[in-house]
Amino acid sequence: MEARPRLLLVVVAIFVSISAGGAAVINVKNYGAHGNGVNDDSKPLMAAWKAACGSAGAVTLVVTPGTYYIGPVQFHGPCKASTLTFQLQGTLKAATDLNRFGNDWIEFGWVNGLTVAGGVIDGQGAASWPFNKCPVRKDCKVLPTSVLFVNNQNTVVRDVTFVNPKFFHIALLSVKNIRMSGLKISAPSNSPNTDGIHIERSSGIQIMDTHISTGDDCISIGQGNDNVDIARVQCGPGHGMSVGSLGRYAGEGDVTRVHVRDMTFTGTMNGVRIKTWENSPSKSHAAHMVFENMVMKDVQNPIIIDQKYCPYYNCEHKYVSGVTIQDIQFKNIKGTATTPVAVLLRCGVPCQGLVLQDVDLRYKGQGGTSAKCENAKAKYVGYQFPKPCP
Fold it and tell me: Taking the model in full, what pTM does it have?
């Protein structure tokens, strides 16, 4: 009668080991993952996740060195684990057949206390970019985002490399309290809609010490966000740091309390930008934002508010945006612009409470830089180059 319990203990030990600190460690290889870059490891990884999520206490799911070829996977909770670490030591490599995908490739959802750390996440997007019609068609089919975090709380993402997504690298949706640091995010400068990090309907966001070079916005802050803190991010190439686009759909939430500091932009289309659509179907606010200590290196539009945003052809510009912009500060922003207009403040309903403090932006070509304003009620403090709008 003693043999059966011993056998059970042996079997359990194969799949779940206990580290010196008492945390359970689950190895994806014990769930049938190959890690050879050829066999489809989608099901083994989800099986390992299910085991980790269902284990009590502190749990670490280890994706050991190797290349794991996977299609769409869902790593969902809620989990029994008090904390769950997804320790990526190898590379996750996306399938290229778009027929396999919905909106996302990898989803981490409904988990409290998740950490995603290390490794490489390769979306293999180059084969899909020719099928992306979103830059020219309003009714385009959206390609899958590489990694979606949805309805998570108290999340850490650190020291992960993201390359070549089919669409966005990372999207945050309805996330509360997430700290992201030490990320390396890259795609070619001509890759369409490959935003580095897109944020929507989330709060308590920290993005620190990260390098993003991509084909669209390095970081885009969409609708319904509050308390976003971004610091020490290297951006370029790409479209820069954007709040928006806002005001396109009915029922959008406000964007409030955004603090962006100590960023460097190199060869980007924009520096710091707020963009809203005209003719918004409902009203919203973009308010209480500080952009400070920015270095612009050969940036087309270092400071830009555009309330007539329209990326398509034949834009009529007949309407006023429904997004009210107020209490926005641009402080200590210096460097070089590759177009003569270094500061563009194009507001619809007059922007309220704009402050520009210690701005020094020089034109890389012949002549000086200038500022252009529409309906912008701005206060100027300290040194100003270009000369402020009348």
Answer: 0.94
